Amino acid sequence: MKKRGYTLIKKTKPKMKEAEKSVDDFVRELKEANTAKNDYREQSLRIHGLICAKCAREFDYKDRHLLTVHHKDGNHKNNPQDGSNWENLCVYCHDDEHSRGLLGDYLSKEK
Ligand SMILES: [Zn+2]
Ligand SMILES: [Zn+2]
Questions:
Q1: How many angstroms does the Cα of residue 38 sit away from the middle of ligand 2?
Q2: What is the pLDDT of residues 5-56, one digit of tens each?
Q3: How many Å lie between the centroid of ligand 2 and the Cα of residue 7?
Q4: Which of 21, 30, 41, 88 is deepest in the core (most CB within 10 A)?
Q5: Count of domains in the chain?
Q6: In a 10 Å sphere around its CB, with 0-12 CB exposed, 13-18 middle and 19+ buried, how is residue 52 labelled?
Q7: Distance (Å, rounded) from C-alpha 28 to C-alpha 22?
């Protein structure tokens, strides 16, 4: 009788561990999702260079935060690895490109 009870407790233990693991996985997935978001920006800067595609203003490592990635089709989830949907625009040209307050939303998401 005692042994049976012990066995039952043993069986529940792995289940608890699995639950803990899934929380860790969830957190890890969140972190990875955040990294992926920043990644396309880095990739676009690498592919197209630190230069605004519109006004040709050049940036260096220090003020690269003024250079933003514009999605040509307006879909921020469309991130082809060859950079064909990206355009590096300075914040001024990017603002001009959207012109209707979309940029405010875009920039707040970036941060
Ligand atoms: Zn510009
Ligand atoms: Zn844009």
A1: 15
A2: 555 556 555 555 555 678 888 888 777 766 655 689 999 999 999 999 999 9
A3: 60
A4: 88
A5: 1
A6: buried
A7: 10
